Amino acid sequence: MKSGEGLDIEVGTRELQSTSRPTGPPEETAGHTFISEGFDLKRVPTQQRALLLSCVAAAILDPLFFYIPSVNGGSICLESDRNLGIIVIILRSLVDVNSVLWYFHWRTRRGTGATASQREAVDTRSRDTASAEQTQSSPGKTVLPSPKTAVVMLSILPLPQATAIAIVIMRGNPRLQQAVMLIMFSVFIQFILRATVLVPLCNKTMEYSPLLSKFRLWVGAGFNLLFFVLASHFVGAFWYLRSVGRTLDCWRSVCRTHGGCNPDSLYCGVGNKNYLNDYCFPGKTSNTPAFDFGIYLSAIESNIVAPTRFTLKFSYCFWWGLRNLSSLGQNLDSSAYELELWFSIWISIIGLILVSLFIGNMQAYFQFGTQVQLEKMDKKEKKRRYLLKWETFKWLPPDLQGDITACEEDNWVETNEVDLQTALNCLPQEIGGRIIPALCTEMQSRVKIFHALKGGPTTLERLVKPKIYQKGSVLFGKDDPVGEMVIVLKGTLNVMLDQVLELGAWDIVGEELLGEIIISSRMSPPPSSRTHPPSRAEVKANEKVDAFVISANDLQLLMKDVELKKVMGNISPYLNGQIRLHFCLPILSKLPALEKVHGKALEALCERAVPVSFSPHSVLVQDDSDINKMFSIVCGCLRSCDKKVRSRPKECSDKFLGEELLQQALNTDSPDNLKPPVSTILIQAVTKVEALRLKASDVRWVRQAFRKRFYEEEWAVNVVKKWFHSR
């Protein structure tokens, strides 16, 4: 095996790391991973958990080998628990087989999981490495496996199983004690090797598993507790095995001083050796001083070393290990036996290290948790301040405001500002998706032109689009075509008219487009193509502006079924006057009675017109009734009939009704209370009709307002008189 083929648990394969650069996110390519870059990254957490469980299972099973030997005080012999031995051997073998299968599975997937280019890079790198090794090393030099591979392979060698089989088979053999010592050292060494693999593996599992990383505080504390429990389990089992060993030491010590005793017969041989109990089992009366068992005395007194239930042995020994590790060995009363003293010292040192790590890490984890809570509180406070600065936030309903404030998944505090687009992008869909409907509901109640929408906020939700204008950006230049209408949500705009006009929340920019759509939608026939009207002023963002934008096509759909009288009652005076002039002035200027009226007077008369609408089959003028209103038809069709001709062809827009009343109102000699003329025909709406209505009082008011300047010739005479007076 070459050095580059070792099982590199921390960094994966060295070939792929040396031939390719990380291109993915840091959590997928950087740091320590168990696989190469070409491997399926989605399988990393599963393989980590599998290897982690294998190591933990082996660390739990290995100390159980110590419980196989036992001391039979009745027959004075060293026995073995056959059932426990078989179970532990099988379980440990299964764990080792799983580790080996994982190793070869990983080696196979490393070669097949990479892309073609990566495999080619690996092959090239391998050939270059082999050539370099042949050049730099001597011909007979042996390339050793990597240290990490050696650690893994040594930790799964079946030495404990082989020794345990020997202990089970060698009942009554004098070499049984040597087998017991061998299993003690093999398990001890492999337990230490597994610990060197288990500690970094736990750290990497927390690092690469999203679920464990989310609960890193408790998982880290759990791993520390796991190490402490495993150490207690191992110390208790080791203490049990050494208790059996010290019992055998006592038997040999007494046997050497007693005549007729053969030390080889202490392993379940024949002969009466009951006198050994007088010396080696506490509580027996004897003239000979009792053997000093030291820290193993409680095991002898409780008869744990004798063949008994495994659960009792395990519980007692685990409790002993846990108590002495947590107390740093302060309760240990050691004898003058050298190995026992070193075991006590080892317990104190390991207990001190584990307790320090456990307490220190717990303190660090809780400090980290406190820091996280403080950071969350600071983040919430920052978000609260930013939300207070976000003017659009105050237009949202209280329940939605509470959900946005309580949401912990947003990350806009990193940008130190909040706007509509940021909120929609950062908030979860179930919260962010409610913002635009809430703003559309508020917009319909605050913006007058949307009061009459039949679809309500639902129609607005489909057509409006959020948009951000940075400070200083120009929305429309003077005389630039206006292709969209803008509704301000947050911020201010400067409109450069004769004087600077400042617009704020819920103000509208681009009403010229609205007027153009209102006019073109009522033209007959409709225009084949739409032209965007020019902007009458430059519009510039005074600060960062949140806005809703409605395009020309969407605005036409939005205003399609809205009546003219409802629109004109909710738009600006300027746009209102422009629409009246467009519809009313051409009709009035064609009337014979108004041919000589000055244009200013006609415009004033148009401004007095009031929009009205009639449903199909409605009667505009009743025959044989007084004519008290005049109508300039904007759109729709009419049909008139009289007593002679009951039905005449229908007439559509650009028609004026009530000329008789107009002539009477223009006559300055007629009194105001003169009876209005009587209609001789019936005029009825065929389709929906929209019109601008005038009354006789409107005509008289305009005639009085302009006095002698009502007609063109009067205007010219007055200009000449003023010129002569000035001379």
User: Can you give the helix content as a percent range?
Assistant: 40-55%
Helix- and strand-based class? alpha+beta
Taking strands numbered 1, 2, ... along the chain, how are they ordered across the largest sheet? 3-10-5-8
What spatial form do the alpha-carbon principal axes imply?
rod-shaped
Give the rounded overall mean pLDDT: 75
Low-pLDDT sequence parts: 1-44, 111-145
Biggest β-sheet strands, sense, barrel: 4 strands, antiparallel
Overview of the molecule:
The protein is an alpha+beta fold and 727 residues long. The chain has 27 helices and 17 strands. A four-stranded antiparallel β-sheet has the order 3-10-5-8. Strands 4-9-6-7 form a four-stranded antiparallel β-sheet, with no helix packed on it. Strand 1 (69-72) and strand 2 (77-80) form a beta hairpin. It is rod-shaped and about 160 Å long. The termini are far apart. The relative contact order is 0.05. Mean pLDDT is 75; it is low at 1-44 and 111-145.
